[in-house]
Specification:
This protein has about 270 residues and is α+β, with helices and mostly antiparallel strands. It contains 10 helices and 8 strands.
């Protein structure tokens, strides 16, 4: 029995990972019963793990009696080789985009079957909500995801398009062949759009950021409400920012440390 565990074959560290995975996506505050349900672990085990993680600083108790990710865990994650150099290099370009558009500005990388948001600057002027840093967007329905998928290795594109594609709105494209043609167009034009495909009342566009030659390592995107800004202007601005960041990363240590891990096999 691994790690004196009450569940044969399951170590203590594996259970801790299950607890942390319970906070994936948009789950920010969970009760102990929520965590037990998401992890399928006994309540007594969850209680013991949570108490140890609170003492260490990985989880924090909220005023409402729930649990949230702790500052110590965030501090360690913020040092990730995969995100730190990219975020640092990207911030001047993201800030410039925000000052020009007052729209949501995001930068994302591919992680499994999702676009993982590395950083976000929140927009103003009634711009619809966007995911938070550390959140995830679907590859087939978000402009960031489409860019990452368009420049991913063919085997990864094929695997994603062969998997079930969720429909978020009536405008979401779920036909693999339609998406395949769109990805071809994105590689030709260097920019992707998503109009009411993920969230009703939102339009976004994204452009690829390149590290090593011809390898897309990230996507910079703008998200606004329909008609708030001219879409052609948004495309031009996001492409300029992505190109500027690509030049900043070229030959830098950030590019060399980030790029090898960005195109993990889908679902790995």
């Amino acid at each position: 029995m691994a790690g004196n565990s009450s569940t044969p074959g399951q170590s203590v560290s594996a259970k801790i990972f299950l607890v942390l995975d319970a906070f994936a996506g948009e789950r920010t505050v969970l009760s102990m019963s929520d965590i037990a349900r998401f992890t399928a672990l006994p309540t007594s085990t969850v209680h013991r793990l949570i108490q140890d993680m609170v003492i260490w600083g990985g989880l924090e108790r909220t005023s409402g009696g729930g649990y949230a990710i702790g500052v110590r865990l965030w501090e360690i994650a913020a040092r990730s080789n995969r995100s730190y150099g990219l975020r640092e290099a990207a911030m001047p370009f993201l800030q410039s985009l925000w000052e020009t558009t007052k729209a949501h500005v995001l930068i994302a990388v591919m992680d499994g079957n999702d676009a993982l948001l590395i950083e976000r600057i929140a927009g103003t002027r009634g711009v619809p909500a966007a995911g938070r840093a550390g959140g995830r967007l679907p590859l087939h329905a978000s402009s960031s995801g489409k860019v990452l998928l368009a420049y991913a290795e063919p085997a990864i594109r094929d695997a994603v398009l062969a998997s079930p594609l969720a429909r978020y709105t009536t405008n979401t494209h779920t036909d693999p062949e339609v998406l395949r043609l769109e990805l071809d167009r994105i590689r030709n034009d260097g920019v992707a759009t998503s109009e009411n495909e993920l969230t009703p009342g939102s339009v976004s566009c994204a452009a690829p950021v390149f590290g090593p030659p011809e390898v897309g390592i990230a996507a910079v995107s703008l998200l606004s409400s329909p008609g708030a800004r001219d879409l052609k202007e948004m495309k031009l601005l996001v492409q300029m920012a992505a190109r500027g960041l690509s030049h900043a990363l070229a030959g830098s240590h950030a590019a060399s440390t980030i790029s090898p891990r960005l195109h993990r096999q889908a679902g790995s």
